Amino acid sequence: MEILETIYQEVIGFLGISQAWEILKTGNYAALKTYEGFTAFIFPIIPFLVLLELTLGLIYKKPHSKVYKVNFLIYIFNRVVGRFIAIAMVTWIIGFFQPLAPFQTSFTWYWFIYGYIVWEFGHFLYHYWGHKVRLFWCLHSTHHAPEEMNLSVTYAHFFLEAPYADTIRTTVCILAGVEPTMLFVIMFIDGTYGAFIHVGENLMKNARLGFLEKFMLTPSHHRVHHARNPLYMDTNFCNLLNIWDRVFKTYQEEQEDVKIEYGITREMNSGNFMDVYFGEIVSLAKDVWHAPGIKNKLLYLVMPPGWHHEGDHKTAKIVRANYFNSQKVKIKA
Question: Which is a Gene Ontology cellular component entry for this protein (predicted)?
Answer without folding.
Answer: endomembrane system
